[in-house]
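S.,

Sequence below, as promised.
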Amino acid sequence: MKKLKVYFDTNVIGYLDALDHPEKRADTLAMWEKVKQSEYDIVMSEVTFDELEDIPVPAKLDTLKSYVAEIMYDRIDVNEEIIRLAEVIKHTGIIPLDKHHNDRLHLGCALVAEADVLVSWNFNHMVNITTIRGVKGVAIIEGYKPIDIITSTMLINKGET
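The prediction came back faster than expected:
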């Protein structure tokens, strides 16, 4: 069976060390174990790494970087096509506010990377019906493979025995 190609939004990495959200952290750590065993092909972008570098607490940044160092992943850099897709997402009203530019870039990166899923805990701008449906529409119109936007919990399949 073909592995899922999974794009990580930055906040997924952050939840690896989110002691104040034990359930989300536990699910993200369970997902991370599968990632470490190469069950998925992982993609992250320069947006992810730039946002990680903005973490103001050096100890937390070091912890998150150590998690990232545990896995294999492909890195995608932002290019003109990704910026164009981010603008399409903005102008279609899916994520219209300028302050959420990085969320649009994450979506553009995931589409260009041909990810099967984008994993995020961002319910405000990513994991919600407006964004999920809107991005699938943009993908189809722009000639990209539609992408699913899910949480770590949805990826780990808790029903396994």
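The chain has one domain: 4-156.

Coffee later?
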